[in-house]
Amino acid sequence: MKRYNPAELEPKWQKVWADEQTYKAVDFDARPKYYALSFFPYPSGAGLHIGHTRNFAITDVTARAKRMQGYNVLQPMGWDSFGLPGENYAIKTGVAPQVTTKQNTDNFREQCKRLGLAIDWSREFSSSDSDYYKWTQWFFLLLLERGLAYQQESPQWWCETDKTVLANEQVEAGRCWRCGNLVIKKNLKQWFFKITDYADRLVDDLDDLDWPEGIKLMQRNWIGKSKGAKVEFRILDNEDSVNAFTTRPDTLFGATFMVLAPEHPLIVTITTAEHKAEVEAYVSEATRKNEIERQEEAAKEKTGVFTGAYAVNPVNGENIPIWTADYVLMGYGTSAIMAVPAHDQRDNEFATKFGLPIIEVVQPPAPSEGCYSGEGLLVNSAGYNGMQSAEAREKIVADLQASKKGSEQVNYKIRDWLISRQRYWGAPIPVVHCTVDGAVAVPKEQLPIELPVLEKFQPSGDGQSPLALATDWVNTTCPTCGGPARRETDTMDGFACSSWYFLRFADPKNGTEPFAKDKVEYWAPVDMYVGGAEHAVMHLLYARMWTKVMQDAGMISFNEPFKALKNQGMLLAADGQKISKSKGNDIKPEEIIEQGYGADSLRMIVLFLAPFDMSTPWSNEGLAGVFRFLQRVWTISQNFITSETPHNSEAEGELYAAAHRAIKKVSHDIEHMAYNTAISALMQFTNELYTIEKKYSFAAHEAWQFALDTLTQLLAPFAPHITEELWADLGKKGGVHNSIWPIHDEAYLVEHVLKIAVQVNGKLRGEIEVAHDATQEVIVAEAQGHENVAQYLSDGIKKTIYVPGKIVNFVV
Ligand code: ANZ
Questions:
Q1: Which protein residue's CA is at the shortest distance from atom 11 of ligand 1?
Q2: Cα 150 from chain centre
Q3: Does the Cβ of 412 fall within 6 Å of ligand 1?
Q4: Which of 248, 327, 396 to mutate to test the pocket of ligand 1 (most atoms within 8 A of CB)?
Q5: Distance from C-alpha of 151 to C-alpha of 438, rounded to nearest angstrom
Q6: Residue 174 scores a pLDDT above 90
Q7: Is 256 near ligand 1, meaning CB less than 6 Å away?
Q8: Whose CA is nearest to atom 12 of ligand 1?
């Protein structure tokens, strides 16, 4: 018998698929389209890791099943090759990023091919190819034209190790998302994309997406839309007034003091002479600390100083002291608050520490401990007493609005997306700076602005990109006046490249526009997008914004890029630890392939270990187990091919029943991404085939052929190589991956055993199991003989009622 040898048959079929372009996606084909996409991988020097294997296997199984189910499937692959990861690798190795990127992408492509992914390789590109980034630059100009890109000097997050600014989304708990080091604030002139213009749509459109709720919540929190009011407080003995943003205008009668952020411009003018020295000292101390330190310290202990000034509460005319404290942030809301210590925890701590009055204005529905921040009935609030807080909120704002002392206000936490980087390895921002005309957009016909090849590409750390040193490249002429000008030397954040790549796959070779509208309209949006949860508020937010910009510009008609998003769970080391090179517990996909298990076993084990969205430890035993399973599939098929046995109709019935049960279960499970249970159903089906073979040998040739064809087809999305070989061995033409997915027939699934309830005088006394074609006499006899029933029948049976297939009732 032919041996199962993945090392031989896997490369063989990979070559056939490549030669025949088996997985080519056909533009405008009449079949329904299906676009399956894995997150844009960055081609690291370490190569594909086992986490990628799980991510890619999920996408690939669904893509392959959909193909067999009659869809025109697009599953492309490309490389997110610009940006910090690739550049840092180049710096570490001292080899130019152009060179390392080429090596790494060659390696990644090879590794993907060895996994047997059903990818249309004719659509591959790298984001660092100039015929790709030309269009990333084109998008920059589109945003600029639409007033969505601007330059501004302001304090920004700066990473000392990566020597560049970072967007807010790329700072996690005060640390750089790439290197994990603490970031600082630096005053720099930077380019921004106006994502805040899209805040409302980014929140509202989340409702219609088939995304994990956790990711939607993270985006909602990040955007941080909060509805409230702006309330104007007059400053006593002063011309000025100060606005406070509050989400609880219903608590206005409980505002016993105000707090201004230390950077608030009014501090300087309102502070009285007596308090000047103390306030100045506090402000300078506060501004020295970064925002994260301030928040952390303020959470532990409140600090602050009195300015000597008073504000007038607009609803009751009370004079309340104005303080400054660093728990109030500059840049959020109005950078000033009305403090309500009875109902806000932070204000409560502050008031307690500094002995400021605490007045309850919202009565909790039930007695509560500590500072109550919920809803309730208003008290101590003059004409509003007795109102529900929600109702009072509207009434107070309406009254403030009428007397021009306040208005409704919506606030967002999200800030504009800082996109310039003082780094070499990115798409140059297509702008020149002219002494006469200022910042001038490079005309679109002049794109791409190619990234020059530099010998010294290390970041300088002086706040300038290494491109500033390439004087030949930097010095140019102004497109407006023709006079001398300097090129912008900052490059774009790598996340700009990944904000539209999913649409380029629809038309990857287009040289005259980013993509043809009709091609994108045919393929997009992405039907299933698979990747890790770590991009929740970075890539997934940016890509949504660009999609909306494209919609507004009339380039596309849809408003969201990814209809369904699926986050795969993490694959951990066998000991449950996170896999990392430094721990020495990493698992290399190619090692597993080379150990003789092959890609098919690897693909199966990463899906079999747990539901796709759960983290799970790696298991060598599991790997050996799925390999044994594939071997059993192999053996029974090969044995069948060489068998010769007479016909047996009982075997036939069992084979069809088992096959149709498997079709139903596996189809359902793949549709619901329950890959692990689909695999166990395939294992069970194989066991059933072994049992039938033991009982009847290979009798019932046609039914066996059907059962093994079915097994091969159902297994094909998971183990594409072995099934391709078996399909040919089973005498089939055209390749299993071009075959049509089987559809189950319910007729074969009817239960072969009937369960019949047995009653005595209408009371349930037992249940019997009989063959589905048993006669009434047999059934009644069985029922009478049931041990629990028999004891009630000792006085004799007056009447027997039989409801066919359901009930036998004895009347005694
Ligand atoms: C009075 C009040 C009473 C408040 C109460 C809350 C509860 P979100 O939901 O995050 O928007 N606030 C406003 N601006 C601030 C700033 N720059 N720094 C720190 N805190 C600020 O929260 C809005 C609430 O946070 C506002 O409503 C304000 O406190 C505070 F029982 O006003 B509130």
A1: 226
A2: 28
A3: no
A4: 248
A5: 11
A6: no
A7: no
A8: 337
Q: Is the CB of 321 under 6 A from ligand 1?
A: no
Distance CA 678, CA 665 (A): 7
* pLDDT at position 647: 81
Q: How far apart are CA 212 and CA 567, in angstroms?
A: 8
CA of 417 to the centre of ligand 1 (A): 24
Cβ–ligand 1 contact at 264 (below 6 Å) = no
Q: What is the pLDDT of residue 751?
A: 67
Report the chain's mean pLDDT, rounded to a whole number: 94
Contact 519, 506 (CB under 8 A): yes
Task: Confirm or reject: Cβ of 335 under 6 Å from ligand 1.
Answer: yes
Average pLDDT value for residue range 576-605: 91
Q: Cα–Cα distance between 348 and 343 in angstroms, integer? A: 7
What is the whole-number distance in angstroms between the Cα of residue 231 and the centre of ligand 1? 12
Counts of helices then strands in the chain (DSSP H, E) = 26, 31
Ligand 1 in reach of 347 Cβ (< 6 A):
no
Residue 409 CB less than 6 A away from ligand 1? no
Residue pointed to by tokens 């006669």: 775
Spacing, Cα 246 to ligand 1 middle (Å): 5
Predicted local distance difference test score (pLDDT) of residue 644: 78
Phi then psi for residue 797, to 5 deg, are: -100, 125
Q: CA 624 → CA 52, 392, 610, 630, distances in Å?
A: 21, 67, 16, 10
Q: Is 263 exposed, middle or buried (0-12, 13-18, 19+ CB in 10 A)?
A: middle
| Per-residue model confidence as pLDDT tens digits over 318-365 | 999 999 999 999 888 999 999 999 999 999 999 999 999 999 999 999
Instruction: Write down the pTM of the prediction.
Output: 0.85
Ligand 1: atom nearest CA of 339 is 1
Q: Is the CB of 427 under 6 A from ligand 1?
A: no
**Helical H segments across 524-563, by residue range:** 539-552
Q: How far is CA 99 from the centre of its chain?
A: 31
Atom of ligand 1 at shortest distance to CA of 249?
1
Q: How confident is the model at residue 460 (pLDDT cuts 50, 70, 90)?
A: confident
Burial class (CB in 10 A: 0-12, 13-18, 19+), 351: buried
Can you give 491-541 as a three-state secondary structure string?
Answer: EECHHHHCCCHHHHCCCCCCCCCCCCHHHHHHHCCECEEEECHHHCCCHHH
